[in-house]
Amino acid sequence: MTSPVTQSDIRALAFDVFGTVVDFRSTIIDEGRGIEARTGVRLDWPELADRWRGRYAPSMARVMSGEMPWTVIDDLHRTALDDVLAELGGEALSTAERDAFNLVWHRLRPWPDSVPGLTALRREFTLATLSNGNVALLADMAKHAGLPWDVVLSAELVRAYKPDPRTYRMVPELLRLRPDQVMMVAAHVKDLRAAAAEGLRTAFVPRPHEHGPATVLPGPEELTGIDVVADDLTDLAARLTRP
């Protein structure tokens, strides 16, 4: 059982990014509709967004099982996009359009509370990403969305994908902190459980629109043992920072 968290315990916050900090689904849908207006290729863009995201975990699992060599998320996304377009009848989309669309992951919009919440938290804590996204993707996203990270850390740095323990150990090791001085922030309970297993503290932030109508939020029993449960990132800042 974890002890109560006080502000003085925590020196750094490590953030899951896709879904927790940025809204991938709406951004993909909107960019898809822009492609349709420009090219005339008509698709069910919400379905494409859901299927594309649905291939995220299986693609990483193939890498971690050894079925595939180490492959960064940008390249996994690009392969998955071809597969999803084939399923939905989008074969007419050109290679150039596909390449440009794949970079939508570099341009994801933040949730409305993300930038103000992160800005408030950064006054007292070191803010790091801890994402399966590759470094180039995360750096571009930060620039595009105005995300005020102190450091961009990616699973790419240890050539392993979350929930591999090496990804969570990387943060305190690189920041020269004890694991219990780092708090993992995520909208995904499995991510937080894996971080806690490596000694990190944990904060849950719900994202009720992450998967659109298919979003299912965890119940209270699933959140047992998580150190902080906040309404959003501005609420997390209010809970962790000094008045």
Would you give an account of this structure?
It is a single chain. With 243 residues, this protein is of the alpha/beta class. The protein folds into 2 domains: 7-21 and 111-240, 3-Layer(aba) Sandwich (Rossmann fold); 24-106, Putative phosphatase, domain 2 (DNA polymerase, domain 1, Orthogonal Bundle), CATH 1.10.150.240. Helix content is 44%, strand content 9%. The chain contains 10 helices and 7 strands. It has helices at residues 24-39, 45-54, 56-64, 73-88, 95-102, 114-122, 135-145, 165-175, 189-197, 233-240, and strands spanning 12-15, 22-23, 109-110, 126-129, 182-186, 201-204, 228-229. The strands form 2 sheets. It has a 5-stranded parallel β-sheet with strand order 4-1-5-6-7, sandwiched between helices. Helix 1 (24-39) crosses helix 2 (45-54). It is globular. The two termini are 28 Å apart.
CA radius of gyration is 18 Å
Describe the strand arrangement of the main beta sheet, using strand numbers. 4-1-5-6-7
Average pLDDT reading:
95
Q: What best-fitting shape do the alpha-carbon axes yield?
A: globular
Low-confidence stretches: none
CATH architecture of the largest domain: 3-Layer(aba) Sandwich
